[in-house]
Amino acid sequence: MRKVLFILVLLISYFGFSQNETLFQKATTAYNDGKYDEAITDYLKIIANGKHSPELYFNLGNAYYKLNKVAPSIYYYEKALLLNPNDVELKNNLAYAKNMTLDAIENLPETNFKSMYKKVTGYYTFDQWAYINIALILLFVIAYISFRNFHSATKKRISFIGSLTCLFLSLLAMIAAYLNYSDYKQKKPAIVFEEESIVQAEPNNRSQEVFRLHEGTKVYVLDNLNDWYKIKLADGKSGWISSNDIKLIKN
Amino acid sequence: MKTKQYIFYFISLFFILSATAQDNDQVEFTVKLSKEKLGLNERLKVEFSTNKDGDNFTTPNFKDFTILMGPSTSISRSWINGKRKFSLTYTYILQPNKQGKITINQATITIAGKVYKSEVKTVEVTAAVTNPNTPPSASDIASENLHLVAEVSKGNPYLNEAVTVVYKLYVSPDIQVSGFQAIDNPKYNNFWSQDMPVTKYTTQEGTFNGKSYRYVILKRVVLYPQKTGNLPLEPLSLDVQVQVPTQRRDFFGGAVYAQTNQRVSAGSKSLTVKALPEEGKPASFTGAVGDFNFFVTTSKTHLNASESLQAKVEISGKGNLKLFQLPQLNLPSSLEVYEPEHDEKISTNYSGMEGKVSDSYTVVPAYKGKYPVPSISFSYFNPKTEKYHTLNSQEVVINVIQGPSNNVTNSTIVEGSVKKAVETSGEQFSFIKTKTNLTAIGSNYFFKSTSYYLWLLLPLLFIPIAILFSKKREALARDVVGNKVKKANRLARKYLSAAKKTLGKKEAFYIALEKALHNYLKAKLKIETSEFSKDKISTLLLEKEIDTSTIEGFLFLLRNCEMARYSPFSNVQMQQDYTKAGEVISQMDKQL
């Protein structure tokens, strides 16, 4: 009985998988035919089925871009970027989408060290860093054991240096993963979906308007109260925005 | 000359009237008063006249008057161009006896058997005047016959709704105007005013207070109230030179005209300006009142980077075009936008300003891509429908086809290289990805998971295990003799276990031993050797390049096994054979 159930579950999951694959293929064809709406519906169906991938989000962003919908386009590109931070095509298309936004937000100047640090730790996601970390540890172990077993002096030397390097690099990868992880946990990016949204000084409608944001602008959520989010922009400005106006990139 | 002309006019008028009277055969019975307002010590002349001969004229009861003279009857007949004119007039000169409003009742007359009645008239009698019955002064006459009137098109307009004020100078036909001069031009505080200059003064006919007048339009102004509430309009004052007929007559009996300067001013008027309704006021309302159209257009929609295009925000229609701000164009920040050029094409007429205003933005895209110009909205209040209207512009997408891409990662483009590679127009917008590896959403992260820690630590555990293992192996490798014994023991254990069990029982032992030796060969050579002769076995083993001494040993053992069946063997010999078998097997094993 149990076996039958297991097979059934397997079959269903396999069926679901193949269904998503066909949906993806269908959407690709629709996109290529210029039927962007259809493509979007299919892609969203895959997400509704509980599956995702950086490519899926990338394609969704592309389809929305073609329809001139700024906010969803940037939203899905950013989502893809979270899963795969160093995709050249993705960055390229995101730049196109960002061209469409109205708000000019200049990044706060960063010190060289900080930008270097960000570049290095942000090159991979923390999960990717973790895999690198494991791989390096395995390499270290292998190199160390072979160092123990080799008899010739040169081989011994090479494997010893190799093992130490692997250990060092794996520690670095671990640190990078850790930093990236804490950074990820701390930051809550969101995209403004409303065509024009007023950012208030306090989380209520009576307070003063601080500034206005337009569709597609990326903000970072710091805090929330009732239906309001405290947000911060890349240039350091902050204020409270209605939660209906923005959509969080991380679920 | 002028007086003559007037007499001529008068006579001709007389004839025309008589002619019409005859033609229509209409009976007229009228009453005419010399004044409508007089002092107690002044006299009033009352004339009853009819155009047909009648009888039984009865005067009304002039009970508040003293009849100084009358009734005096006068009849006049005239024929002009064969048309007859008749008039019968009864005249009274009266002196009022009391102040206040006095009614002069109807007089009756019977004409051709019908009774006709005159109108009822009222006169106002005031206190006694200083110079009774003197002819009125020129300025008195002038002031009575000259009126400056400001006509306002709408008394209670909305804020910013156009109001036209027309200043008219009414001149009675009795006097003549030879010139005028504005003394005080009104300043329209709280209004935005636009003067429509009058280039030519043309006389028009009109009525004023029920009397026929000539009038001239002096000034036309369109006003846009800028404040709500009761706003007074400053009066316009004029100094008018007039010629007034006097009582004196010249030689021909025409009136002699006297010249006088008369100041007239349009009475101060005020407008009640209504505020625009708060209800339904759109957020994008910036004070436009009227009826408008709204467009946002771009000169191009497809262009290359660093070319320029014009984006135009245009409002056309009727209303306070100069008095509100045009909605600002929201352009993507990545476009270079210059200050807009403002253009107005407005004409002002009676109903206010009409035309169009536009802001024209020069836009230069630096990078290729799509740039949407989002829809902007413009709201205005229409005073006619008393409602707010909101117009939204169409969204325009500017497509920049060629140019550098705004990609941060590809900012370092090597320029000035001598070799010319295949030219691409910068980074293209990438196509979607066709392959993917879907994973479940919300799957836990690998980092910090148990499997991560296991994977991290387990390989490290391998190091001490490997070290221990290699140490043991080294120790074993060093002990060569022990090793051999061990190997022989192991092989012996494998094949000679049955023989060992029967050690001491001669028959069973040697049978087991022989079986074990054959079994060994069977395992190693994959040949059933129990039926073979010893020579055949030795040649087989020689083929496998095995030492002759080992083969000898092996064959000796086999021979012993056979001999033992028929001859007595001691236990010691049995033990020797057993160890020998172990040694031979291990030696052969090394060589096979």
Q: Report the principal-axis shape of chain B.
A: rod-shaped
Give the overall form of chain A.
globular
The secondary-structure element order of chain A is: HHEHHHHHHEEEEEEE
CATH architecture descriptor text of the largest domain in chain A: Alpha Horseshoe
* CATH superfamily heading of the largest domain in chain A: Tetratricopeptide repeat domain
Instruction: Name the assembly state.
Output: heterodimer
Q: What's the CATH class label of the largest domain in chain B?
A: Mainly Beta
CATH architectural name of the largest domain in chain B: Sandwich
Proportion of residues in extended strands of chain A: 15-25%
Q: Which structural class do the helices and strands of chain B define?
A: alpha+beta
Distance between the termini of chain A: 38 Å
Mean pLDDT of chain B: 79
CATH topology (fold) name of the largest domain in chain B: Immunoglobulin-like
Commentary on this structure:
The complex is a heterodimer of chains A (251) and B (592). Chain A is of the alpha+beta class and 251 residues long. Chain A is built from eight helices and eight strands, in the order ααβααααααβββββββ. Chain A has helices spanning 2-32, 36-48, 54-66, 70-83, 88-99, 112-121, 126-149, 153-186, and strands spanning 51-52, 189-192, 196-200, 209-214, 218-225, 228-232, 238-242, 246-248. In chain A, α1 (2-32) packs antiparallel against α2 (36-48). The longest helix of chain A has 34 residues, at 153-186. The radius of gyration of chain A is 24 Å and the shape is globular. Chain B has 592 residues and is of the alpha+beta class. Chain B has four domains: 2-126, Immunoglobulin-like (Sandwich), CATH 2.60.40; 138-273, Immunoglobulin-like (Sandwich); 295-400, Sandwich (Immunoglobulin-like); 481-591, no CATH class. Chain B contains nine helices and 31 strands. Chain B has helices at 2-24, 138-145, 450-478, 480-495, 497-501, 506-525, 534-543, 548-566, 571-591, and strands at residues 29-33, 37-39, 44-50, 55-58, 65-80, 83-96, 100-104, 108-111, 114-117, 121-126, 146-152, 163-171, 176-184, 191-196, 203-208, 211-225, 229-233, 237-249, 255-265, 269-273, 285-298, 302-303, 309-319, 335-337, 341-349, 352-365, 369-373, 377-382, 387-392, 396-400, 439-440. In chain B, strands 21, 23, 24, 25, 26, 28 and 29 form a seven-stranded mixed beta sheet that branches. In chain B, α6 runs antiparallel to α8 and α8 (548-566) packs antiparallel against α9 (571-591). The chains are: A alpha+beta (251), B alpha+beta (592). Chains A and B meet through α1, β1, α3, α5 and α7 of A and β27, β31 and α3 of B. β1 of chain A pairs antiparallel with β31 of chain B.
